[in-house]
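Hey,

The postdoc asked me to send both predictions to you directly instead of through the lab channel. I've kept everything plain text so nothing gets mangled by the mail client. Protein one:
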Amino acid sequence: MKSGVYKATKKDGSTYFRGNITYNGKHISLGSYDTNASCAAAYDEAWMLLKNKDIDILSCQSVVKYLPFEKCVTLINVRDNHIYIKTPIYLQKNYFLYYLDKSIVLKFDNDDLFYYSSHKIQNRGGHMFVSDYGMQYNILGRYGIKPYSVKGKDYIFANGDDTDLRYSNIVVVNKYHGVYKEQKKGKTVYAAKIHLNGDFIVGRYQDEATAAIAYNKAVDLCKSRGMTKSFPVNYITEYSPREYANVYTEIKISSHLYKFFRNKNFREA
């Protein structure tokens, strides 16, 4: 059996083959294969990538048959940058590329390198997430973007490239659910809106966190009046629990919202 190819046994008793290559003192797994021949071929391809610097991530797709694409990225990165990273990352000077697959490449700041070196990104229908402690986390959450946020409305990509996930390229427009920035007579205000039978203005406030508390208060009012609709609730980071309670108690919301519930014929949206 070729060096770097190892026979293994599954729980059901069937056999398979695992590939492993050692480069600059680092043992790198090449994956599992059904046959000895395919595993040996993958091992040969791995050495080809490590020895031939003329083969890059784009051109490797035409010369590699057995080795998984993400393994190609790992091997080319360790060849060029002398750092082994088990996820499909290729280092650049001030940022890194994460290859979701052959056609989707994400850009990240080096500040995120430690995290994505140990967390694999999965893509399901355009929803990109990582698994951590048994939970799935949307990668946009690292920027303060909530799961219900809408691209182009609640956050934008400054250069128009939604694969560029460097911090300087992501602009969070609306941090909290139901809160929208507006310009009134040259001043910035924050409108709190709740969707009942259409969007309902809860009020306009001087800062984003206060508007988010007003939205939460409107949600509580809806629930107390018997609405069963599931409203997202904001978690406010700017205030301590005591400060939150004080603002919540003192904040005023639109009297029209109370009038809405006096109409016994209201219908839930």
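Protein two:
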Amino acid sequence: MWVIFGRTENGLHVGYQSVLETLTFTYNYYSIYVAHTPVLDHIWSLCIEEHTYILLALIAFLSRKYQFDPTKPLIALCLVFLVNGALLTFGQHLEYYNVYWRSDTRSASILIGVISFLLFNQSDKKVHPLTSIALLALAVAFNLNPIADPIKYSLRTICVATAICTIKALPDYVMRFLCHPLLTRIGLISFSLYLWQQPCYKMIHQGHSRVFLVAAAFIIAAFSYHFIEVPVRKFLNELGASRA
């Protein structure tokens, strides 16, 4: 604990200000403008998610109150975020972290997923069974290093989002594989695994065994899921239901 929270500077050190920024979901901007805390660096994406969820909740509230289709304003906001990322990259020549760890650029990725779901959920058109596979292959191609980041986080994200939204069109044997109990179990603990993998990853640089740390990450994630995540979620859901 002293190694992590004490004054000793190392790959696992966490300052109290970093903890505060993490708890307030502002770490992504803190890491850009103040300092990096390697063991907490993965929290940048969680911050962007929370910021985007607040935005989506506001749009959902307004669309219900004023009876309008949220798709168009979501597309407009998504385009604003995409253009902002392109301007920061090509116009100001900022590096990757200074552009795509920001909520005012990377939120576009989440909005693309929401827009894709709304469009495909409202459409009765059938897609070719191999559409998802072809789109995922195209997304991998877009991920190649020579391709500029604004393209990766626009066209590539559209490919991934569309592939996920059309995944039910895949052949039955592929769907059975994706529904394998082992894969679904990993999916259930994936959020906890996301939270705990970074400390284990950073400990590799301290000389610890990779196999041991990978196993430790999964064990800690499973424990966190069953004894922290599930009880907290149940409590919050029951609290919300009682108030409703």
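Summary for protein two, as requested: DSSP finds 13 helices and no strands in the chain.

Thanks,
C.
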